[in-house]
From TrEMBL, chain B:
Any one GO cellular component localisation term in the record: endoplasmic reticulum membrane
Coiled-coil ranges (or none): none
One GO molecular-function entry: ER retention sequence binding
Keyword ATP-binding in annotation: no
The protein's name in its UniProt record: ER lumen protein-retaining receptor
Originating organism: Tripterygium wilfordii
GO BP terms in the entry: protein retention in ER lumen; protein transport; vesicle-mediated transport
Length: 10, 215
């Protein structure tokens, strides 16, 4: 889902 | 995960390891700004709030723990370790970094993706990271000559976000993934702040000379 996608970076 | 993102994370990790090596090997933090280290500790603490709630991967969790742990360890060392804190240039490290924290916090409450605690803290950490290097760059300019490990530390720290920008461009063209414009703009500003340092770093590398920043 876009949520985890956008927060998958450090 | 693409090669640019991985290179960025590794470059960031190397910068932390170089700084830890400098402090551990020389038992000195001369030329290092405590204020920049405190700002980075705040950046990681405010960005990785979801460390235990939002599991993405072992790699992601490990890297977050390393960045939080190392930044806190460095701040602790520079404040408490008997030998290291003696070498801290308190009178040169005078940047008013609390103003940076306040400005970034106000900006984060005004400009964010959603007005939720997590998103405001995330935006705050992104803005703060963009300017966190300022006390360190000011200290280097004031102290003139830069020792090798400190120069390498700043170089890798600046290079990591440049790799992230390449990662965002790559993901845009390959995954139609639009990175968040807050991260993108702040990342560009952050990398641009290193521009003059990169220039003098390249000159010193080309002439095989000591890194000198103009006062």
């Amino acid at each position: 889902n876009p949520e985890s996608q956008s927060h998958d970076e450090l | 995960m693409n090669i640019f993102r991985f290179a960025g994370d590794m470059t960031h990790l190397i910068s932390v390891l170089v700084l830890l090596l400098k402090i551990y090997a020389t038992k000195s933090c001369s030329g290092i700004s405590l204020k920049t280290q405190e700002l980075y500790a705040l950046v990681f603490l405010s960005r990785y709030l979801d460390l235990f709630t939002n599991y993405i991967s072992l790699y992601n969790t490990l890297m977050k723990l390393v960045f939080i742990g190392s930044s806190l360890a460095i701040v602790w060392c520079m404040r408490m370790h008997h030998a290291v804190k003696r070498s801290y240039d308190k009178e040169v490290d005078t940047f008013r970094h609390y103003y940076l924290v306040l400005a970034c916090f106000v900006l984060a409450t005004l400009v964010n993706e959603q007005f939720t605690l997590r998103e405001v803290c995330w935006a705050f950490s992104i803005y703060l990271e963009a300017v966190a290097i300022l006390p360190q760059l000011v200290l280097l300019q004031r102290s003139g000559n830069v020792d090798n490990l400190t120069g390498q530390y700043v170089f890798f720290l600046g290079a990591y976000r440049a790799f992230y920008i390449l990662n965002w461009i790559y993901r845009y063209f390959t995954e139609q993934y639009f990175t968040r414009w807050i991260a993108c703009i702040a990342g560009i500003v952050q990398t641009a702040l290193y521009a003059d340092f990169f220039y003098y770093y390249f000159i010193s590398w080309k002439n095989n000379a000591k890194l000198q920043l103009p006062a």
